[in-house]
Amino acid sequence: MLLQRKQIQSQNRKEQKEEQEAEANAVYSTNTVEEDVEHATGTQDQKLLYLHKYLDGGARTFTIHLMHKLSQSVVYRVRNRTEPKLHDFGYGLSYKNISDKDASKMDNSVIVIFKENFLHVLESLKNPTLVIHGEVDISKKSIPCIKDLKIITIRKTLQKYLKEEYGLDSIFKFLPFHPYPIILNLDLERKGAVSISRISFEKNIDMIVKANKLLDNPVKIYGRGRRLYVHFTFRQLTNILSRAKYVVDLSVYKNDGGGMNYTFLEAIHNRCALILHRKWLEFEPEYCDFKEGYNCYAVDSPKELAELIKSDTDTTQVVSNAHKLLQRHIDVLWSDIF
Predict the structure, then answer these.
(1) How far is it, in rounded angstroms, from Cα 146 to Cα 214?
(2) What is d(CA 255, CA 137) in angstroms, rounded to the nearest whole number?
(3) Domains of the chain in sequence order
């Protein structure tokens, strides 16, 4: 990505400091895995399992909103060994590192994110529910192990792809959303644009960087690279978005798109206008939540992005139309996944 070396070094130092502070503030527990779950949730029958190396991006945000929706305060992350402490997961929540051996003892678990390097863990579990976030989560390698599981998908395009490519049946559910308090100042004139997504290839951050060279008031990029993912609190997030006119998310996923992701939901909840990549909208209406000029704006070049931001368009109606999409994500039932 087009980040200056000094910025990356500064971010590395900040990240190291944050990790040291997190370690210092860790909450220690002498409970077993089962006792921690019971203490955290009041039941031993509902366990959330995080099978991914990184605590970042949409999968982490999904887990946070799901935990709030289900009143769960601990998610279990498989690492090399079980630790006697809870780590800060952000947003008033915790995660606990456990070994694959302890994970295999879990019954009735829900895998909130899965990557294939944890396939041996998945194979050891007893009838878990699996949430698939994108086609990159699985391949032909994992199909024999997951074909008989209860699978949840979070976009209709992804559900269709899994069926056509692998013959997998899945249940589509709208992304869960916890409607946290926001700052809504009607007297404040919103200005400029922000990007809050993780910095990675499929997010097309380079288009934003190129557009910034054409803007007097450049798009503020708050995301970081994978190992430097920025962890907002709800308060910090709404502080940023309450002043922004646009949220720019130029994500393009192979074999997926059209539906929601969390950057979109955060923008809609905070009354920002969405600027998406036009390729995100290239799906049949039944698979696409968005329509250019109706509930979002769309671009496919840095020049077009810069011109849209400079145009100072009245976004009131587009924001209002987009807000109609939010309630179903607040109301959607996820308690039946166990």
Answers:
(1) 48
(2) 12
(3) 24-173 (3.40.50), 193-330 (3.40.50.2000)
